[in-house]
Amino acid sequence: MALTGVLRPGHIALRVLEMGPALNHYVDVLGLIETARDDDGKRVFLKAWDEHDHHSVVLREADEAGMDYFGWKVDSNATLKKMAADIEDSGLCEDLQWIPSGEHPGTGERFRFTIPTGHVMELYAEKVILGNGCGTDGPNINPDPWPEGLKGIAPSRFDHALLYGDDLDGTVKLFTEVLGFSISERVVTKDNPDFMIGTFLTCSNKAHDVAFIRQPVKGKLHHASFELGSWEKVLRAGDILSRKRVKIDMGPTRHGITRGETIYFFDPSGNRNEVFGGGYIFYPDKPVITWYDETLGPAIFYHDRQLNDAFLSVFT
Amino acid sequence: MALTGVLRPGHIALRVLEMGPALNHYVDVLGLIETARDDDGKRVFLKAWDEHDHHSVVLREADEAGMDYFGWKVDSNATLKKMAADIEDSGLCEDLQWIPSGEHPGTGERFRFTIPTGHVMELYAEKVILGNGCGTDGPNINPDPWPEGLKGIAPSRFDHALLYGDDLDGTVKLFTEVLGFSISERVVTKDNPDFMIGTFLTCSNKAHDVAFIRQPVKGKLHHASFELGSWEKVLRAGDILSRKRVKIDMGPTRHGITRGETIYFFDPSGNRNEVFGGGYIFYPDKPVITWYDETLGPAIFYHDRQLNDAFLSVFT
Amino acid sequence: MALTGVLRPGHIALRVLEMGPALNHYVDVLGLIETARDDDGKRVFLKAWDEHDHHSVVLREADEAGMDYFGWKVDSNATLKKMAADIEDSGLCEDLQWIPSGEHPGTGERFRFTIPTGHVMELYAEKVILGNGCGTDGPNINPDPWPEGLKGIAPSRFDHALLYGDDLDGTVKLFTEVLGFSISERVVTKDNPDFMIGTFLTCSNKAHDVAFIRQPVKGKLHHASFELGSWEKVLRAGDILSRKRVKIDMGPTRHGITRGETIYFFDPSGNRNEVFGGGYIFYPDKPVITWYDETLGPAIFYHDRQLNDAFLSVFT
Amino acid sequence: MALTGVLRPGHIALRVLEMGPALNHYVDVLGLIETARDDDGKRVFLKAWDEHDHHSVVLREADEAGMDYFGWKVDSNATLKKMAADIEDSGLCEDLQWIPSGEHPGTGERFRFTIPTGHVMELYAEKVILGNGCGTDGPNINPDPWPEGLKGIAPSRFDHALLYGDDLDGTVKLFTEVLGFSISERVVTKDNPDFMIGTFLTCSNKAHDVAFIRQPVKGKLHHASFELGSWEKVLRAGDILSRKRVKIDMGPTRHGITRGETIYFFDPSGNRNEVFGGGYIFYPDKPVITWYDETLGPAIFYHDRQLNDAFLSVFT
């Protein structure tokens, strides 16, 4: 099979300070769909409309915002077992554990581990399929291109996250050598091209499935990103965010890295979100794109050619 | 590695009746870039701007339009050898042969075979990288999102082809069981869902890399398709085609299958081209989409909900 | 004042065969807003979201589809009186009459007359303002760019109509010499440029406010058109129409005349509608654009460069 | 005639520090077309592609950037004479003078005057028509929707300017009472809605043809604006500006006032330019939109909901 191993970002678990405002944000403004919540209401599970799996976002009420963990869907239980063993063998990760099936609703056993940059990651092979609501004569039969009744910004899927952490080399080694990812783009110091400041990693034809920027922190989230499909939808997203008084951090603009057309904003707890369109089709034989540290400005915000203050200082 | 085996459509070799008008079409109107031609001028090699490899379209002057062959880039020479053996073992293909390195400029050895629907296919592992012209401080360094000096419609890449042939079952068996493709969408008779009228196959996250429709012919080309990136570029393509008096077959419109935003037109020899944007992200665990024969109209042309006369009758 | 006299198309009164399906079409699919209906339910009044006036579409149940009349908003009662007198003096019109204030809800006195092509036209100076629902601190105060809760295609306004009739010369004389319109574009026979086949007329900076095509009929409607704002909204309109099984006549495509980006479709009674975006800014000193009869194809449908069968034969 | 009096912004005369870099900016990056220059090369005349008149931008080399004057096309010489007399009678303006025909190439006599905010304005009735290059069988005959060979950002026309000055009340009185303009939008202090901070004025169906913001200066230019036609073209403009290292001031974003989709940037002399799309259709009976001073942020930059530092402090 041409697409094997780690298939995609499967879920991101975010900590929010209050569930009520968080749901208002993620459901009414961003336009995700609630699919389940824990009996005690402490966790709520959500999906974007064009995702078939049960959920891709997990919200948990906590005292501090940030990312609890990031889950990757793998192609099979055999891959799950093998990768768990490979991760253990690599010696790169800590706190390895198996989360039993059902701990997430509709989800099989998950293998959890902490990567060198301090982020908690998971692999899993099974999640119940709910569908995307487009079939007209049954699920996946004669579908319309998009469903009726979408709310808010309505991205098609959870797409990737940008994460901040210290041991970038260890994490990149893990993703490329153990988990089978490719580097699509990297930011390096011009004097020492082996010293990566940022690395954009993909397990697919997407320009990135996860990205890391070297910062002297552990396990931090820069943003969780959702796919929109067009630049006009980015404009519409900006309009909706302004109307709803959601704080926009940057954009609409274009990224130099990935060419994405983007807008950044914050959830009520301070977690940064992105919705974006565009980008290119990646292949593993595509040359890696290199950005020098001196061009980090246009690499991130291509139009302004400089970072805003929040880019390096605000994360959760 | 997450993307393995057959990576992508690597080249399509088209027969054209006269090279001069063909080049006017493919270079000045469509906007491909000539990268080489044979000493005798009988074959011209072209690429789209965002392709890094040496060429993706081969034009050959001949008495009859159509497709000579379709080439697939695989991830390594080892895969090339293994797949060649697997194809031979499958007994599904005819006229197996190795084309020596260099027969295409900048291209390694190719394994050629004729599939059950009569189309000549090739696998190859090596092609010289020319780059996409976007780097500002060297190839792939600090790139702009698109290069200056593009002409005409300027698609980013050769994306897929739709092919007509008789033994659809044999060809689908080959692609799914030997070459590792997935079925993303299929058109079936409602009474017998196992009888496929059309099959859309992917080896990637794209909604299709090649598609076949069952017709009582051998080795025919319905269209060769190039990727544009946005619906506004489809409008611009239509404007350019009209200005240049290129015959438009259908569109701008949306496909039901793949959700693509599309326009069909003909090269001067009668080969149908498509430029398109949009579509969804495919994963191998995504449920197959099924269209019934009675909804073939909206499956192909979602807005009109019916085929035009040319769809089933005009091919090369 | 820079904009004087006839300001804009103010309302179009359409005959529909059954009110229920008509309202489903104009409210749920097209996305107009019902603002009033007659006590007996025989007429329903609608507006588009960005129109401030009380209504712009009047639906009346009748045995035959078509246009009852077309109303123009003029800048003042003084203009209304003067133009009524001028029309009478011109001798070009028939069936002159005053419709009393209130016959349309919220509307002042209307002057009605039948023009040489057989269409019933009206002038009026007063209509109650309902607003566009965008103000955040009161009507027209600190407005958002668009209101929440829009349904369906949701055009911004009723924009123009294309009408079929026989005495084109008389009607053009009326509009240009009596009502102060300019000709923006015209289709003529190449041999005799004074013989107009079609005339596009404007009283504003819009490329057209009404258009006429010479046909051996009286008082016929080709289409009533609504403004959308972008080509992406035209795609979305096509998607909605297909989903709702509304018969699309043509498009998405571009008009040569006016450069509009368009889609044509039919209401359940057979009245043709258009939604469109684009076009240029007209000024009265802009040279008239001339199309020859031999280029009527690209003049109407720029991409296909030919009329479809319905263009000349289907009207109401 | 429905459009009378002042028809449109006809030209803006800008001072630039060096003509070479200025032409590189206005011709190669912005994409205007040079149509004439003075014998001594001190002034260069330019037009945008879809303008029919001889020129709309005049560049003059000077020691200081800024606007020399802003010219308005009126509908006739009779209007020119009458408005000149009305302006004189109003007592609102200074430095009234007639500029002889031919002082601008291809342009008739101009009446020049200085308005209360210190800006030099002109009225003129005649300018040679060069056309927009779209006709296929002669000027304005069977035109394509856009010409080939455009360079850079390629806006369709010079659209409006935003000007800074002190005596806003006098200038607004002049434009509304003498020149026939309407107020489309205004920014006022919430406590005293009669105290206008900013006024957007139109003589057409456009949301604005000129705008003024009250600042304790005389005759200053905030930006000269050019019309693009779509949000996707705003993105492309941003890409071109970044590639060419043109300093972007703000955007892409949306204005609250006029709903325009915009990007601001600077020419090499520090004059701010805008290219934009979108906006609504204005009519003189449309209610005036009011913004309170406390919402000046979203009024100007709807997404960010706050001004950037440069908005109030950087002008020429």
From TrEMBL, chains A, B, C, D:
It catalyses: catechol + O2 = (2Z,4E)-2-hydroxy-6-oxohexa-2,4-dienoate + H(+). It comes from the Bacteria. The keyword Transcription regulation does not apply. Its EC number is 1.13.11.2. Residues 8-126, 157-278 form the VOC domain. The keyword Oxidoreductase applies. Keywords: Aromatic hydrocarbons catabolism, Dioxygenase, Iron, Metal-binding, Oxidoreductase, Repeat. Its cofactor is Fe(2+). SUPFAM superfamilies: Glyoxalase/Bleomycin resistance protein/Dihydroxybiphenyl dioxygenase. Homotetramer. Belongs to the extradiol ring-cleavage dioxygenase family. This is Metapyrocatechase. It comes from Thiohalocapsa marina. The lineage of its organism: Bacteria, Pseudomonadati, Pseudomonadota, Gammaproteobacteria, Chromatiales.
